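Bumping my old thread because nobody answered last time. Still need a sequence for this structure:
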């Protein structure tokens, strides 16, 4: 699935990228550009703006209205509509910052690039080949898994 998200949807964009989806996002794209790109690149437009939703529908663009609710409920709604898998799979994950597929990086290569305590505590690291951001399943990992579980619970209701 390829998406383009409006400028209000930075958080859900990062989630979808982490779950492996190609999401174009920039806060500088106006409604007209969002619709044009969705059309030319065959992306589904995600928006929480009712007016943009209406315009896109009229123009024949695939569009999904993202309700203003918790992250977990948004994910559940997306999963219901697009079969977004609510399981984390690092083999398909994209960089939440720039949408590029992340790749495993050997531990010896991250020395000096992450805090020393992190380097000594964790063994698995990933790097974004584009923006060079390094990722590991750190303290925030528990919260990510908890949100995904919450989303799966909504979905099964
Ligand atoms: Zn990146």
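Sorry it took so long. Here it is:
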């Amino acid at each position: 699935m390829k998406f383009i998200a409006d400028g209000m949807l930075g958080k859900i964009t990062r989630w979808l990228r982490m779950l492996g989806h190609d999401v174009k996002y920039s806060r500088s794209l106006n409604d007209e550009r969002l619709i044009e790109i969705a059309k030319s690149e065959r992306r589904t437009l995600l928006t929480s703006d009712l007016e943009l939703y209406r315009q896109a529908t009229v123009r024949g663009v695939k569009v999904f209205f993202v309700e203003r609710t918790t992250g977990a409920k948004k994910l559940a709604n997306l999963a219901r509509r697009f079969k977004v898998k609510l399981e984390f799979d690092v083999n398909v994950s994209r960089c939440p910052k720039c949408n590029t597929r992340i790749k495993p990086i050997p531990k010896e290569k991250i020395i000096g690039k992450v805090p020393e305590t992190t380097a000594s505590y964790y063994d698995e690291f990933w790097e974004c080949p584009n923006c060079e951001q390094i990722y590991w399943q750190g303290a925030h990992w528990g919260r990510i898994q908890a949100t995904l579980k919450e989303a799966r619970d909504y979905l099964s209701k």
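The beta strands are 2-5, 22-25, 44-47, 63-65, 103-105, 125-127, 134-135. Let me know if any region looks off to you.
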